[in-house]
Write a structure and sequence with these properties.
five-stranded antiparallel β-sheet, methyltransferase, RNA binding, 24% helix, Fmu (Sun) domain protein, alpha+beta, SAM-dependent_MTases_sf, Rossmann fold, tRNA (cytidine-5-)-methyltransferase activity, Alpha-Beta Plaits
């Protein structure tokens, strides 16, 4: 591929691989030209498009996540299995948590921690947009996470850093984080790493990453973790499409320091460490008593319209005031009674009437079951998004909006017309 046709941005398809072709068709119908990125099967590069990628309908409906290809590396190199449990200690805005959620699948769990309340709001908004019931959020200091030690098999520490690797996109970063200002940041990274080492299960895997090129925050932190925390450094080979810098320090022979310009990406650092000992299946942790008092049977939510109940099999629905949340079974085991946390909000339940969040296409059955509008003309879809209503199909009072069978969201019916709104 020549430089004239190099991707201007990279992103991920946020879908099951079986739906990738339909998500791509939605992008292509709007005039976006894509290319496969070699680092991950659902990663794509944008070659050209009629507008900013953030304006694409696939982005509006949560089927893509715009992300630098270097930023995809930490989850991919942590490589948790299907059904695995992952702790993301510094999660906002959610780029890595959402990728981890795809890797572990519906039966797996990602616990996404963010200490800053404003950034926590951004994280939760992205999780809602991406339709991920298997991610729960907490708001704690990473260095003081009140979780059970020695029980987390996979931990990601994408540490707060100086961001020097983003200098091409953010030139001011070198003035904001001058070398004389780094000491508190380096100490914070050490504190978070130390807590992560205590939380990590024997035989568990920890990935430490930054978007800086500063040795103090990268290889020297890894050396400190090996010398003082009892962790072992594992060897990493670069994923396809990346060029790395080796040899400046012994640790770099085993870590990845991404050469941003040669890789067409941000500068990035990734190290993978493990905790000595044998990995095993942890015993089930007790669930806090009293949680059942808030449980809402799924059948109570399906009286107004059918739901894809398979999307809710890994947990239970609970009512808090008038809001219904999905709580993953593995989160109930690990977090209930230990720390305040939040699952995915599904909608509201007032006077036995459930009003679903219209953006939750993950709860939509197939078009043949739910009905609604199955759009094949991109102009019609643009009209719906702009707020125009269309004649309601059939005689029902509920239905979904689909693109060639791909669920997009829940329609609202007003008399004999229907419209789509994300509220």
């Amino acid at each position: 591929m020549t430089n004239d046709h190099a991707p201007s941005r990279t992103f991920r398809l946020n879908c099951d691989p079986s739906d990738a072709e339909r998500v791509e068709s939605l992008l292509q119908a709007e005039g976006f030209v894509l290319a496969q990125d070699p680092c991950y099967s659902l990663a794509r590069g944008l070659i050209s498009g009629p507008t900013a990628l953030g304006n694409a309908l696939a982005h509006t409906f949560g089927y893509i996540y715009i992300q630098d290809r270097s930023s995809m590396l930490p989850p991919l190199l942590l490589d948790p299995p299907k059904g695995g449990v992952v702790l993301d200690m510094c999660a906002s805005p959610g780029s890595k948590s959402t990728l981890l959620a795809r890797l572990v699948g519906p039966q797996g769990l990602v616990v996404a921690n963010e200490v800053n309340p404003t950034r926590l709001g951004t994280l939760r908004a992205n999780l809602r947009a991406q339709n991920l019931p298997n991610v729960v959020t907490i708001c704690q200091q990473g260095q003081d996470l009140p979780l059970d030690e020695g029980t987390w098999p996979f931990i990601l520490v994408d540490a707060p850093c100086s961001g020097w690797g983003t200098v091409d996109k953010n030139p001011q970063v070198m003035q904001v984080w001058t070398p004389d200002k780094l000491a508190p940041l380096v100490q914070l990274q050490k504190s978070i790493l130390a807590r992560a080492a205590r939380l990590l299960a024997p035989g568990g895997t920890l990935v430490y990453s930054t978007c800086t090129t500063d040795p103090l925050e990268n290889e020297q932190q890894v050396r400190w973790a090996v010398d003082h925390l009892g962790l072992q450094l594992e060897h990493l080979d670069p994923l396809p499409g990346f060029t790395v810098q080796r040899g400046a320090a012994p640790e770099l022979d085993h870590c990845l320091l991404i050469d941003g310009r040669k890789s067409g990406a941000q500068g990035f650092f990734v190290a993978r460490l493990s905790k000595p000992g044998r990995s095993g299946q942890p015993a089930d942790l007790p669930v806090k008593t009293g949680m059942a008092d808030h449980a809402v049977p799924v059948k109570q939510l399906t009286t107004a319209h059918p739901l894809n109940e398979n999307a809710l099999k890994a947990g239970t629905c609970h009512l808090f005031r008038d809001k219904v949340f999905f709580l993953h079974h593995k989160a109930l085991q690990r977090l209930a009674g230990r720390v305040r946390w939040q699952g995915l909000p599904l909608g509201t339940l007032r006077k036995d009437r459930f009003r679903i969040d219209p953006t939750l296409h993950c709860l939509m059955p197939g078009y043949d079951t739910l009905g609604g509008l199955n759009v094949t003309d991109i102009d019609i879809l643009h009209k719906m998004i702009s707020g125009q209503s269309l004649p309601a199909p059939g005689s029902g009072k509920h239905g979904g909006l689909y693109w060639r069978g791909l669920p997009l969201g829940w329609l609202k019916y007003k008399g004999k017309r229907c419209l789509w709104s994300n509220r």
